[in-house]
Specification:
The protein is mainly α. It is built from 19 helices and two strands. 51% of the residues are buried.
Length: 431
């Protein structure tokens, strides 16, 4: 297996883990009887872990002689933790296991990026293709649950004859209510098994030891924060915070919106089709990743990222203005490819181009602090409050008003980036 192929598989497994449990956890936690505060604490484990990881795990990866072994150990322990989430229904053990998993998993997103960049000759052209593996991993995590959420008792009772009839009967009989929520525990079990698989695979990744550093120099994370003295990096860092909030609002609300009955203002999609519908965005992301390199050459950093942010605004505009059109809601999921590849993936490539190579993981972690940390933390506390308290009355959610919040936020972020982001010619921003 070539170096690029191994990096590709690494990304497949890395994002399969996250994609397995994230989309459905927002509906699963209430089914366990957890209070809104308990739900927020569990959901906050991921962003808090990103903040902590900025100072410890990324530092370890940058200064370690074998970052791939850091990756292996993280996924071994983190995999066992998320596996345990599938076997508990009590708050304290669930929260503890989720926190351990996130504390070890979140920094691996920066570590896998840094391992990939360290083994590329031309990141602008190669990263999109390698990172596309992560998109495929997310999709692979979504579609098997179409069958996990099937009411197999109803299928057996129908006694379909032939593969086509059997498949049609299976897809026409989704689990509903408490049965569907109970089946969600399998998302954590599958995620845990994938994490253990990546722990083993990490041992055959190409070696990517960081540059040697003389004793007594600054820590990698403090050097990474030093990048913010450059105005163009500071602007991008702040815009990334806003876009992260918008991005996480999508995950907080879309699953509920799709599954809510039409008469209650939702789309009315069956439970076993919610995750596949949301994965359409990842399918589109594959195509977007393929053209990302050419897009960066043609449009440049700023325009590419502005388009990515405006993709969020367009998607929430459709949510707000055309909630009764299931076809439009499903079709607009393809914008996720533009939202992620043209902004977040581009940010990762930009950071690699404009930061010292000796702090690869920590520089990536600086932006993951916003993408996976502070932005997600804000969304996970604000979004449940907005949905359950501000925009819900008499048990009915005002989805139009709700979706106007991220629409406006994304629009403001795009304008700020267009006006104030002025990077110099490619090269290290700090030495």
């Amino acid at each position: 297996m070539s170096t690029r192929q191994r990096l590709f598989v690494m990304m497949v497994l890395e994002f399969f883990i996250w994609g397995a449990w994230l989309p459905l956890i927002f509906g699963y936690l209430p089914s366990l009887g957890f209070s809104p505060l308990e739900q927020s604490l569990i959901l906050s484990a991921f962003p808090v872990a990103s903040i902590i990881g900025m100072f410890f795990s990324n530092q370890w990866a940058d200064r370690s002689e074998s970052p791939e072994r850091v990756l292996a150990l993280s996924h071994l322990i983190g995999g066992l933790a998320i596996l345990g989430c599938g076997f508990t229904r009590s708050f304290l053990p669930f929260f503890a296991l989720m926190f351990v998993h996130c504390l070890l998993y979140v920094p691996t997103i920066s570590i896998t990026n840094s391992i990939a960049f360290a083994n590329m000759k031309n990141a602008d052209k190669e990263f999109g293709i390698v990172r596309m593996g992560g998109t495929i991993g997310w999709i692979l995590a979504a579609w098997p649950f179409t069958f996990i959420f099937v009411n197999w008792a109803a299928v057996d009772a129908a006694q379909p004859i032939g593969l086509v009839n059997w498949l049609g009967t299976a897809l026409a009989n989704p689990l509903t209510g408490d049965a569907a929520k109970a089946a969600t525990r399998w998302t954590f079990i599958v995620a845990g098994l994938a994490s253990l698989a990546l722990a083993a695979f990490s041992l055959v990744l190409p070696k990517s030891a960081p540059q040697a550093r003389p004793a007594g120099e600054r820590t990698a994370w403090s050097e990474a924060f030093g990048l913010l003295k450059h105005p163009f990096i500071l602007v991008l860092w702040l815009v990334t915070l806003v876009d992260s909030f918008v991005h996480n609002a999508y995950f907080n609300w879309t699953g509920v919106f799709l599954g809510t009955a039409r008469e209650a203002g939702g789309v009315g999609i069956a439970s076993n089709w919610i995750t596949p519908v949301m994965s359409i965005g990842q399918v589109a992301e594959i195509l977007t990743m393929l053209v990302l390199g050419a897009t960066l050459v043609k449009l440049g950093w700023r325009t590419t990222m502005v388009i990515g942010i405006l993709g969020h605004a367009a998607r929430f505009a459709v949510y707000a203005l055309f909630p009764a059109s299931a076809g439009m809601i499903i079709a607009v999921q393809i914008l996720h490819g533009i939202c992620y590849a043209f902004f977040f993936a581009t940010v990762y490539i930009f950071v690699d181009a404009y930061s010292p190579k000796s702090i690869r993981a920590s520089a990536q972690g600086l932006f993951n602090l916003q993408i996976l940390g502070i932005g997600a933390l804000l969304a996970n506390f604000i979004c449940p409050w907005l949905m359950q308290s501000v925009y819900t009355s008499g048990g009915v959610t005002d989805f139009k008003g709700l979706f106007m919040v991220p629409l406006v936020a994304a629009s403001v972020a795009a304008i700020a980036l267009a006006l104030f982001f002025r990077p110099p010619a490619p090269g290290p921003a700090a030495t």
